[in-house]
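FW: tagging you since you asked about this chain on Friday. Here's the raw sequence from the shared folder, copied in full. Didn't touch anything.
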Amino acid sequence: MVAAILAETTAHCKWIGYTSQLSEALISMAIRVFEPQYMKIGVLTAALQELTPRDVRDKDPDRAIEEWLDFARELDVDCIQLSAALHPTETDVPPEAMLDPVANTLDLRQPFDKTRARRVEAAMKASGICLSDIAYFDNMLHHDPDVRKKKMDFMLRVFDAAAMLGASAVCGFVGRNQQHSMDQNLGDFEEHFIPLLKSAKERGLSYRVEQCPMPGWTTGDNFHNNIGYTPGAWIALHRICEKHGVGDQFRIHYDPSHAILMGQDTRSLFQYLKDSGYGFLIGGFHVKGQVIDAKSVSAWGYGGQTLERGDWIDGKPSENPADHLNAWKKQVILCEHELPGTARHDPLAYLQNRSVDWLDHQLAARELLPLDAANTFLIVEHEYPRARIQDRERLKPILKGSIAFTRRIDQAAACMYALQNEVLSAQEIPVQGVGRQAYRS
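HL: got it, structure written out here
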């Protein structure tokens, strides 16, 4: 009898020990380590176009890259997005007609060869600054075959340089054939842009489309002059790409300033992509804001100024290229670009889609997109008109402040995401409050 009781007691004790161990194991499994993942912060080199004077860099093109890498180190960034453009002597658009004159920090009048690549790689190693990608923004669907070929040939040189420097992507526009309807431009895309994406695929690159509608590209009435301007269009273009085996080459370099221009907000836009099964399209970010002028919206609406702009003289487009800059009143009458951190904190404007809510931008990216945050680039693009200073010492603290703001906003979002969606979630502890919701702004 005693032996039976002793055996039962022993078995019971073993069961208690087992359940205790099991309980400890379950508790251990529920504890998620706090590990926020921060994005890489960079800057587009067009922020300071004349860092290296043109008479110097025209003779020694890669010196401009070396000096920008040194400057980038002083700005405390992780990487640069290298700006490429047709040289001012070769472009079809006069500088005086451009809202934001482009910078050819990467000079490709001559092809980028192995000798040049080694020089740039040595400068990157010495500075500790990496390359996110190379950016060339132009109209790749131009209606003139000769002009289009010139741009395409230049883009192929950009591809070659990117591949030599170990970049995985380039960034640019699609553009628009001004002589065709938007539907007809899908055919132009298939005929002219798909071969470009095939060339990118051969080099192991993806092409990230920035979604600016480029309203001022023409003195005509068209507002959407880059057909890759919004999620509905991205999806239509991606379907064409998939049909030709280059779906993986077509990606989006998302810029929230353009969403604000078109009355969209980042969270709703990302939610739409997720709901549609296309969240994977976002491959990188320009961090540039937009501050809407509510009074001008009242005057003109979101189509911008449509008449009496000054780009037409005597009933026809002006013969003076400088007058063509007035075509940008379709946009600039409504809003002004923000360098991140230079606009006031304005919760009402965030809810009205009249300014970028940077914290929610970074939260929405993590919550709604299938991103590898630690390997995603946030590129500061400086186009705030009143701070477009071509003086290194004056611009340096402005850029440095904006970059520091961008880094800390991303860090705050990363910490919130990790705490709420990983640590608390693992222990089944609810997150408090409601937060911003898609489709309700």
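FW: Residues 35-426 form a domain with the TIM Barrel fold (CATH 3.20.20.150).
HL: agreed, and The longest strand covers residues 130-135.
FW: great, closing this out.
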